[in-house]
Amino acid sequence: MIRKVLIANRGEIAVRIIRACRELGMRTVAVYSDADRTGLHVRLADEAYRIGPAPSRESYLSIARIVDAAVRSGADAVHPGYGFLAENALFAQACVEAGLIFVGPDYETIRLLGDKVAARRFMREAGVPIVPGSDEDTGSDLTSAAERLGFPLLIKAAAGGGGKGMRLVRRREELEPALEVARREARAAFGDDTVYLERTVQGARHIEFQILADSYGNAIHLGDRECSIQRRHQKVIEETPSRALTDDLRQRMGEVALLAVRSAQYCSAGTVEFLLDSTGSFYFLEVNPRLQVEHPVSEMVTGVDIVKEQLRIAAGRRLRYRQSDIQPRGWAIECRILAEDPYSNFAPSTGRITGFSEPAGPGIRVESGVYDGFEVTPYYDSLIAKVIAWGETRGDAIMRILRALEECRISGIKTNIPFCHQLFNSPSFIGGQFDTTFLEQRFSLSTESRQAHELIAAVAAAYVENTKRGRRAAERRDSSRADGAWRLAGRSEAMGD
């Protein structure tokens, strides 16, 4: 039984978790740094505790301060959200040792999956296909592994995530300098400079499967998400389902995702990530042992509240769903609204939001952690809101998210909304013709803008025509039903019923 949950996070994800707790009848505790004392999550929670100065290493990354706040508040459980300490095995262990329920997988599981080299080795032994690469980081071994793999290849941080410590190496002579930079970046970000190599998958699509698993051995997936639209290895747009998958491929990848989490005796919500090449071969990338930024798109098409299920599982409940219960419907697309200037190389944009108006209407969901008058500081991630659109078809979802972006009003700071608007109008995006290199190699704010208006008109015309066609079909059905009703009435009268 969980009665009170401390949310060890901030911004939109803290607000999202507070709302889920409230619907489950659980009281909530917010934590905040000096920079966040007026944060939306602080306003919404039942209680709030200061955990330190603005720099995250002195507040949201302080295990001791967060656990102390949880104990002082009388919380039963701690939800880490994503980012900060969400994948920190030491934090999960500290919560357990303090008598708190950690809303996430067991800390030993986090430790296994957090070491990308160990996770690759584990999954390979479990029979999960992995991207060809190296296992050990012993200098000369990496050099010989690079010769074996060929170029281009990727250097990745063993403790990595979010693109930190990752470098693309196109030629042999770039390897040593890139290794040095990657190790330095990994050491600064994760306190661990171990790196490894992966063969570059040409034309790769980034596909992931949302999973839920309980402590009784039950595990299901909620279908796939496509996250190939990335900038600097950071996801920008996510959608479900992926246009790149056939039904057969989707089923096989889902089964492999479940094999991966069952092999690791995983318990909680999580995500299994893959790279899919142009031939239909797919390779395990990693398991993210936490809630994902993009979880709402899966919720929109399945109707499953992932955060609530995560809390129920943490409380020791069984999964309420079987795989056959999951019947995704329609299409959902998510757009991350970031406080950055797309016309200045996406430089961070800070300051006070002087006007904030969220989009609404049919099929639109907004997850935000800001409000009119909120101060965007330079201390944290630039994500300020997410806009999610649902539609019967992918075209419907694209038109809805375009409408929503036009309704979204944020003044006082720069945002990436113009960039997202142009991206959704891109012929390549609309046609589903993209891979993980699309934004950096084939898209710019200027090159595709000339076609934008023509494309809007074309998509709008197609949408209107489809709507008319559907309406005419519905009218024919109604007419047929009406005729049938009149016939039945006439027959009934003739038979003297």
Topology:
Blueprint: E1 4-7, H1 11-23, E2 27-33, H2 40-44, E3 47-52, H3 63-73, E4 77-79, H4 89-97, E5 101-102, H5 107-114, H6 116-126, H7 140-149, E6 153-157, E7 167-169, H8 175-190, E8 195-199, E9 205-213, E10 219-231, E11 234-240, H9 247-263, E12 268-276, E13 282-288, H10 295-302, H11 306-314, E14 331-338, E15 340-341, E16 347-348, E17 351-352, E18 355-357, E19 364-368, E20 375-376, E21 383-391, H12 394-407, E22 409-411, H13 417-424, H14 427-430, H15 438-441, H16 449-494
Parallel strand pairs: 1-2, 1-4, 2-3, 4-5
Antiparallel strand pairs: 6-7, 6-8, 9-10, 9-12, 10-11, 11-14, 12-13, 14-21, 15-16, 17-20, 18-22, 19-21
Helix pairs in contact: 4-5, 12-13
Q: Which labels suit this protein?
A:
globular; 497 residues; 22 strands; eight-stranded antiparallel beta sheet
Explain how this protein is built.
The protein is an alpha+beta fold. The protein contains 16 helices and 22 strands. An 8-stranded antiparallel beta sheet has the order 13-12-9-10-11-14-21-19, with helices on both faces. It has a 5-stranded parallel beta sheet with strand order 3-2-1-4-5. α4 (89-97) runs antiparallel to α5 (107-114) and α12 (394-407) runs antiparallel to α13 (417-424). The longest helix has 46 residues, at 449-494. It is globular, with a radius of gyration of 24 Å. The chain starts with a strand and ends with a helix. 46% of the residues are buried.
Task: Sum this structure up briefly.
The protein is α+β, with helices and mostly antiparallel strands and 497 residues long. It has 16 helices and 22 strands. Helices cover 39% and strands 23% of the residues.
